[in-house]
Task: structure prediction
Amino acid sequence: MNRFLKLAIVGLVASCGGGGNYKAPRNLENACLLAAERPAYFRAMKSTERRWGVPIWVQMATIHQESKFIGNAKTPHRYALGIIPMGRQSSAYGYSQALDGTWEDYLRKSGNRGARRDDIRDATDFMGWYMNDSTRILGISKNDAASQYLAYHEGRSGYANGSHRTKPWLMNVAHKVGARAELYRFQLASCR
Result:
């Protein structure tokens, strides 16, 4: 096979791979550096903030917790007897770690039928849609990253029933999400 044909085949195969940049940004601790390294992420979050009213720093802190900004993130595998693979812990996938059923609900209700969980624009739009409904249904402020995270993690019914209150580990995670959101908020105010 000639060299040109080989290069064309390699290029074609590479272009079919989804084109996503699934590696985490280099600096997850600084919102300004993260936005500078991945301007598409910042644009997606800004668009979500305009559409759904969920602040960029709340989105950033939630994505940081859920996937560390890794577009194709999946939950770990479960094992029986420590060695027999039993599938993944849940169907959570992508930047937002949306579950299959919740994602399908979003696709139906948002009209964004072609959305993908490994696309930052779709993932942030999903997050905005979900948190906007949490505000409407549960009365959680869109600026309250910790409570939004609890409703996001437990589902709205679980949050309304207080399931998070019996999980000290989850309350600790939500506190960290809230603290990270405030840090990101402060950083973003100084770099704009």
